[in-house]
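User: What would this chain look like folded?
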Amino acid sequence: MRIPLIAGNWKMNTTVDEAGKLVNEMLPDLNNINNLEIVICPPYISLTSVREVILGSAVKLGAQNLYFEEKGAYTGEISPLMLKDICEYVIIGHSERRQYFYESGAIISKKVAAAINHNLKPVLCVGENLQEYEAGKTREVVTEQLNSSLVGIDLGNTLTIAYEPVWAIGTGKAATGKQANETISLIRSLIADRYDSEIAVNMRILYGGSVTAGNIAEFVSQPDIDGALVGGASLKAREFIGIVRATSDIRKNV
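Assistant: Here's the prediction, encoded as structure tokens.
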């Protein structure tokens, strides 16, 4: 059985001091939950300090992005060499990176390869925007994003995929559990076609987009959904704890 994963993406929020306080507020409750993986992805500047706080705890650390070169004249970028001794996970291809920073599938595939080559576990994000969703192009968009982001990638068991419909991110308008599961089932079949059925069956695929403690059960109770990539709710200690706890409770009864 795939082990559920709940990851909190803090995006461009929290100072170093605020990050430490938030993690310290969450840890006592999160340490009591041991039947799933919990990952926190703070801004780059807080990775080292958050790592010190969570050392020895049930919480793992992830970065929000990386660059595909190891070193060089790339002002402002962070390489996998800089992350691999600090983090276990890294988010790649988030819709905000695709939309605001014009990351193409070719760039994202290089980032996925760089992460895997340096023993980081990528969380690859795919998802359609509102216009594409309303035009009935979800399948087409997700298939293209997935294929272009995995060119030349030898997966093994290192990759997690997060299906994040852009129209649901930060809008309060989450997909239904059934909608999300249908697309995630498609993703699993695409992975089986591209690699093999064993990799597809064992791969964790998450849902992301306006996830809350109130609706997480609707998603993780679905057969193909293995957890969530959580945005705004991960910045609220009680809310994030509630999401993790609800996921844990559901999986105990599976």
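The chain has one domain: 5-252. If you want, I can go into more detail on any region.
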